[in-house]
Write a structure and sequence with these properties.
The chain is mostly helical. 73% of the residues lie in helices and 0% in strands. It has 18 helices and no strands. The radius of gyration is 20 Å and the shape is globular. The two termini are 23 Å apart.
Length: 371
Amino acid sequence: MRIVENVLYVLFLGLTFLKCFAVSKIEIQNYGSYGIIIIAFFLIVFNLRLLTKRTIFVMSLYLLSLFLSATYIFGFLTFSSFLNSLLFPLLFITSYIYFYKQPDKMKWMKYIGIIGIVLAYFNLIRLSTEVNLRATHAIQSNAGNTLVALLPFAILWKNKFIKYALFALIFLGCLIALKRSAFIIFISVIFVYLLLNNKNGTIFRSIKYFLMLLLFCFIILPHIEKAQPMLERLSRSIEDGGSGRDSLVKFGIDLQSECDFPEWIIGNGYTGFRQAALLKNKNFTSSHNDFIEILFNAGIISYILYLYILWLLFKKIKRMYEINDEYLIPFISCFIIFICANIFVCTFVHFWYYLPLYCLFGGIYAVSEIE
């Protein structure tokens, strides 16, 4: 049975990467979704007893609650689009099940990060040959956000040379992709890494290294031509409200206030925010904020379950810190990236950036429960 599970999970990861990196190839991405869901179904069905674990049970309830929004499946929503909203809990639960039974396989996940970085750079290379403006933007967003989501995989490496080389590649990729949110997340994760990885020194040494990084970012980088577009975008963050995210949040709050009782309970469907915006002559793909998007699209039941999941993940960090768990830093890194993406990107809609992260998130959670 273990051999079968190993084969299924390798295939599961392969389909996850296919879904993540097949940018602007909708048909291929859809096949990835179908494959992920079929494999997840088999792994979950044969391990139903693990669904009684509290976090996995709540995650399963959240997964089921999303079906309430399927009320709109024959309206604004296509079946394949609806399946996308299920990927976060499915990837987390499936990875939890696999690594709970085979925790020794976690040591192989660091190699998954290298594969992801190579694929992200392949997409960045495509930028130089892509003539379609919309496809170019999709590739940039995918490469920048996905690269920073691979940071926890890099942290898994004990070899410092490999680890710091991967950090440098991720940092460079964020600059090339011109993603401010990815750049900010990178700095945040590295700061936490320096603080928690300072085993023999003092906190002042960690702060010193972090200040050196900031010095490089804001004094050295401006003199590097390739980095100037990113720094210009960062300097405009306050002026443009984070590419208009402040106005999106206000618009989302106004939309929510207009909802009737059933819409508060079951939401407006997976693409509800986008369709409501179009009805008001606003061409918004999403709210760029999960807390607004989930409440409006999936309703208050899913919203409460989602907040509870975040609380359980935070409590797990606290517990791992108390016992000095070896996977503490990668897990905190996953949490930081996930929360930042919730606030700035909207994982509910732009889900494909973070698919490998969800696998590692669920896997580390499982291994930490065993130890």
